[in-house]
Amino acid sequence: MSFREKFNWIIVAATALTLAALGYWCVRQMGAGSPADSAGPVIIAYIAWFILMTIGAIVIAVRDPKDAEAPSDERDRIINMKAALPTMHLYGFALTGLILLIFVFDMSKWDALYAIVAIQLVATILEAGAKIRFYQMAV
Predict the structure, then answer these.
(1) How distant, in Å, are the alpha carbons of 64, 72, 95 from that of 33?
(2) Do 116 and 42 form a contact (C-beta atoms < 8 A)?
(3) Going by C-beta distance under 8 Å and a sequence separation of 6 or more, which residues neighbour residue 11?
(4) Contacts of 47 (CB under 8 A, 6+ apart)
(5) Apex CA 25: angle with CA 59 and CA 40, to 5°?
(6) pLDDT single digits (tens) 58-98
(7) Cβ atoms within 10 A of the Cβ of 45, count?
(8) E strands, the chain, where?
């Protein structure tokens, strides 16, 4: 397995953990009856996400430094382009739906913030998962 494929596995794991933790926090807030009225949890989630991915990248780079320093080739470029397509469709449809929710149903700015973060994290999982699949298919 190449460094880029391993790193995409780290992206999927770190992003899924971050999304689950943020989702759990939101559900607890709603269950307690207090609305989300702060960007603090989002900032903490992004910092944790960054730290998890950085630690993971360092660990796999230390295990195989030659593979980590290898330049990307044409195959990597094709995989990146193919994996970006479904992600862009998700962004387009989800953000269009979110805009409709904001205008039609008068969604609060904090709910919109958490929805945008969730869309971004799900799209990241989708893209990294697609890259893993393409690497395994030997595209």
Answers:
(1) 49, 49, 26
(2) no
(3) 53, 124, 125, 128
(4) none
(5) 80
(6) 999 999 888 888 888 888 899 999 999 989 999 899 988 88
(7) 20
(8) none
Greater confidence, 19 or 138? 19
- Measured between alpha carbons, how far is 110 from 25 in angstroms, rounded to an integer? 14
**What is the pLDDT, as a whole number, of residue 82?**
92
Identify the helix (H) or strand (E) that includes residue 20: helix 3-32
User: Side chain identity at 113, as an amino acid letter?
Assistant: L
* Cβ-based burial of 42 (10 A; exposed 0-12, middle 13-18, buried ≥19): middle
Angstrom CA distances, 34 to 30, 75, 117, stand at: 6, 49, 19
Among residues 136, 137, 3, which one has the least CA distance to residue 68?
3
Half-sphere exposure in the Cβ direction for 135 (13 Å, CA) = 20
> Token digits for 107?
């969604």
115: Cα separation from own chain's centroid: 13
